[in-house]
Amino acid sequence: MNSSSDANQSGSPSFCLLGSMGYSHSMDTCVLEVVVILFLTVLIIAGNLVVIFVFHCAPLLHHHTTSHFIQTMAYADLLVGVSCLVPSMSLLHYLRGLNEELTCKGFGYMVSVLKSVSMASLACISVDRYIAITRPLSYTTLVTPCRLRVCIVLIWVYSALIFLPSFFRWGKPGYHGDIFKWCALSWKTNPAFSTFIVALLYAPAALTVCFTYGSIFRICRQHTREISQRQARFSPQTEGDKGERGERCEGCPDKRYAMVLFRITSVFYVLWMPYILYFLLESAGLYHHEVASFLTTWLAISNSFCNCLIYSLSNSVFRKGLGRLFSPLFPSCHGCTEAKKAPAPVSLRPDPRCQV
């Protein structure tokens, strides 16, 4: 009896979360699940390895203290991609000898902790930018390297502790392990535990991000309006244009960097919001569907790849570091790029603007 039950549990091809969509099992495996999970796994691992290498190869990215939190998120997302190899190998029937209950609990706990690290890091990034803009003179004394390291350690410890009660059968941390039959059918969510997670993690992180970025953009808009009014009132037109451009550009780098971080945070919550809503509805017993569980879960996990994409599209310094990283692989293209960027020949006649 035990051997037969183990055989049924260990990667049984008859149990597929997307089986209700009606595809055939001619390959003796859950084809759609394998394709989705393997595709995301490759993207997440490759994308975050690129982010980590670019941060190590581009010193200018360390100008902001938020780079420590970005790298923390990159390492956490990389571990998410590596841990996703577990369900992939299980669906391909390479983990028949492992205890299914322990495996799915460990995988669900690990992914929940890693995504909690990303969520807490985004909240810390927003607080860091808020302090930098509201208290620029005392920023360096408030945000020190030692305090940054302590904050990162606390993020990992807090994330590990908040999901620990799930091992003591208090509740289910998420649906990441539902590709295992035991997780999907025997491990049930608990309304009290779900409320505990929302109250101590999801809600504080979301409220912190909304408050800090709302304050940041309100302050930037107010400063821009005051500069425009002052220049129009007290300066001549020509000098006013120069002064206005100079004063506006003085805050441009911080504002652009805040916009990049705001895009990362927005994409994170857009991809995670369907999962959080389904988590609350399913915990309350209002709605349950295996396809919705799978799609919302892996949509949320796909966010682990998005940071690399957003950086490459939004941050010019990151693009330069990315170019240096891949320049040995494409030397001809790099040479063409350098040739295009080469300055024009310098005239023999000195330019009076360059004289001191």
TrEMBL record:
Keyword field contains Glycoprotein: yes
Q: Does the keyword Transmembrane helix apply?
A: yes
Q: Which residues form the G-protein coupled receptors family 1 profile domain?
A: 47-311
Q: Any idea where this protein resides?
A: Cell membrane
Note the topology in the membrane: Multi-pass membrane protein
Pfam families, alphabetically?
A: 7tm_1
At the top level of its lineage, which domain of life is listed? Answer: Eukaryota
Instruction: Report keywords, A-Z.
Output: Cell membrane, G-protein coupled receptor, Glycoprotein, Membrane, Receptor, Transducer, Transmembrane, Transmembrane helix
| Primary location group | membrane
Which family would the database say this protein is a member of? Belongs to the G-protein coupled receptor 1 family.
Its protein name is: G-protein coupled receptors family 1 profile domain-containing protein
